Each structure stands twice: as structure tokens, then as C-alpha cells.
Predict the structure of Flavin reductase family protein.
Amino acid sequence: MFYRPSEGHGLPHNPFNAIVSPRPIGWISTRDVQGRNNLAPYSFFNAVAYVPPQVMFASTSSKPDQADTKDSVANIRETGNFCVNIVEYGMRDVMNASSAPLGKDEDEFAVAGATPVDCEEIDCARVQGAPAALECRMTQIVKLAGESNFVVFGEVVGVHIRDDTLVEGRFDVRSFQPLSRLGYHDYARVTELFELVRPG
């Protein structure tokens, strides 16, 4: 089949997210200027540069108690800080619970059962026990076409790695099985690897 997104796909469910998959999940923690923690998963997330290390995530909707976006972007606009927590298979239910549509004054850490611990380089909480966490300072927020589409870019200024994920000097994803987002309500986990060496 072929379809033009502007004209609709004619299927029972939108296939776009299923086509662009698997996608890593950025479990974004922020803290507002009043000191309230926020935690939310975003599947439009990735690393974008090595030197300096940089990441991005996109927020694509808004909520009634924020002007044009969600709590994560609103908090980052105010403070310039955010932390990316890596989601392991064992924390799938906690991650999912943190996606609940809560008010900006409600703490997703508490609601979902995640334990906050302060970051080292930024004024923000991270998820205790996450396989890794990237402390970030926002470099820019880009408004995309669409009503509430924003991409947040950040420089990684601190990296936490859980000790048991380091195997012979490598960050071994098999030790925690990272969760990835597929289409619809589907997820996958990484359980095995293979290696390809680039030519030259």
C-alpha cells in the first residue's frame, strides 16, 4: 500500500510508530523551580553526537495545566536541566506507571514507585537503580511543525553507570535488557547481540 499522511492511512491504527521501530526510551526526569520532581518516558529519544556527548528527545503533546507542552519541556525551559534514565526490562511497570496523565504538582516518582536520588552536576533527580543515567544541560529547544511538537537537545555533563552492567570493561546491555518502544502498545527487550565490523 501507499498513503499520504495528510490524507490518512485507512487502517484501524496508525502504522507510523510501528514502521519507525524499535526506538530507545528516554525516561526523562526533571525538577521545576519549586523543587517538584517529574518523571516521564519518551520514545522519540536518541543520542545525536559524541564530542561533546549530546542527546535529544521530542515531546509531541500538551496538557491542560501547561500552556503548550508537557511538564518535562516546561520544567526544562525554566531550569535548563534534565536527566535521561535508561529503562531496563525489570522496570517496565514502573516506567509505564510514570506515563500516567498527572497534574504538574504531582510527583511521578512517588506515584510509580521509583526512588529519586539527586544528580551530581545538575539540580535534578534521577531514578535510583537505573542501569545508566545521563545528566544533561539543555542546549536548545526546537519548535517543530505541529501544535505541541518540541525537540529538546542537551549536552551530557555527567554519566551514571550501575556497576553490575559493566562486563569486562563494556556496558553490557544483556545484563539488564533495555526496553524499546515499538508501535501501538508494543515493546521489546534486547536479549542477544551480534557484531558487524565496518569495512576498512
User: Anything to note?
Assistant: The two ends are 39 Å apart (CA to CA). The mean pLDDT is 97. The helical segments are 16-19, 71-79, 92-97, 108-112. The domain at 22-189 is CATH 2.30.110.10 (Pnp Oxidase; Chain A).
